[in-house]
Design goal:
With 65 residues, the chain is mainly α. It is built from 4 helices and 2 strands. It has one domain.
C-alpha cells in the first residue's frame, strides 16, 4: 500500500494534472497481451485495485462496506 501511495503522490498526480500526459496515464489502464483471458493485468489493476480488493476481503463483510 505504501508503494502505491508514493507512486500516486509523486508520479501519477503530476501526470493527471497535466493534459499533455493523459495519453501516458491511459496506458496504465491497458492490460498487456490480453488474448482469451491470458496476459498481464494493467498497472492500475496490479498496484492499486488488487491490493484494495485483498484488503477488503480480509475484513468482515459488515466492516468492509
Amino acid at each position: 500500500m505504501q508503494v502505491s501511495t508514493d507512486y500516486y503522490l509523486f508520479e501519477l498526480q503530476d501526470k493527471i494534472s497535466s493534459v499533455d500526459e493523459w495519453g501516458e496515464v491511459c496506458q496504465l489502464f491497458v492490460s498487456s497481451g490480453a488474448r482469451g483471458g491470458q496476459g498481464q493485468p494493467s498497472r492500475m489493476e496490479r498496484d492499486f485495485i488488487n491490493p484494495m480488493r485483498i484488503l477488503e476481503l480480509s475484513m468482515p463483510p459488515d466492516d468492509s462496506d
